[in-house]
Amino acid sequence: MENIIVSRHTDGVMQITLNRPKALNALSKGLLAEVARVLDEATADDAVRCVVLTGDERAFSAGADIKEMSDGGIPMFAEAGRLKSWKTIERFAKPLIAAVNGYALGGGCELILRCDIVVAGEGACFGTPEIKIAAFPGDGGTQRLPRSVGKARAMMMVLTGEFIDAETARDWGLVVEVVPSERTIERALEIAGIIAEHSPIAVRMAKAEVLMAFEKPLDESLSLERQMLLWQTEDHDEGIAAFIEKRKPRYTGR
Ligand code: CO8
User: Fold this and answer.
1) Are strands 13-18 and 4-8 parallel, antiparallel or unpaired?
2) How far apart are CA 226 and CA 3, in angstroms?
3) How far is the CA of 25 from the centre of ligand 1 (A)?
4) pLDDT in the model for residue 71
5) How confident is the model at residue 35 (pLDDT cuts 50, 70, 90)?
6) Which listed residue (23, 26, 59, 64) is catalytic?
7) For the chain, is the Cβ count within 10 Å smaller at the N or the C terminus?
8) How far is the C-alpha of 62 from the C-alpha of 23, rounded, in Å?
9) How many A from CA of 250 to the centre of ligand 1?
10) What is the mean pLDDT of residues 224-236?
11) Residue 94: how many CB atoms within 10 A of its CB?
């Protein structure tokens, strides 16, 4: 991999570190394709229960690669491979946790909007500055940002291009916790480790159900949630047995 570093932790957590520091981890087509490839591998690998996505101290990611844009022009955004990579990230069914230090801008901000939980270091900042280059957050940001922070705040960010700091991002609901910068990855890994102990099938179902709240009308998602109650899993039986027998459950993911 040229643009990312992949590491595995013993507790079932995979860490993907964006690694284009000279370009502030800008999301080139190559980088996005590598992230998508690794997420496909993580999907197929039962040993991976949760993924943490991070950058470096200076930037989680400063967004789409503006230098690639000038090569390809705006239609570059609609390039099939690039859209396929985004789709893979969006459809990843296991939990995805972002650990953000430094800039999370443009596509970098859109990337965290696709994550399930976001932990930020004190110095992190978030923004959708595309308007400054006569564009808009077209990798899902115009739709996901208002669902995350509400219309007025999304309009403020999208139309001014101004950044918000980590505390504001937490107050607005974009981020779940703000921690000292040197603790960001550690905290994200802690959360991932807790999730990795749970039944993987129950975790996948729970993630899918919460996401339905943003994707479907309420009557449809409530009806789908009720249908999911019919699911019988061995893990559920094991969870109940372990509770009654006062022991740790041994989940198999079935
Ligand atoms: N793409 C490519 N290279 C970048 C990017 C980027 N997004 N951001 C920074 N870099 C590069 C710089 O060019 C510079 O490289 P070099 O040293 O070779 O000149 C290096 O990273 C360091 O950057 P700076 O020197 O600019 O660092 P500063 O600390 O002075 O500034 C900033 C940091 C404020 C983050 C500044 O770099 C910046 O404003 N970057 C651009 C942020 C941005 O606009 N992001 C949004 C991009 S567009 C997008 O994400 C989605 C578009 C979807 C459009 C849909 C269709 C309309």
Assistant:
1) antiparallel
2) 42
3) 9
4) 65
5) very high
6) 64
7) C
8) 8
9) 47
10) 86
11) 21
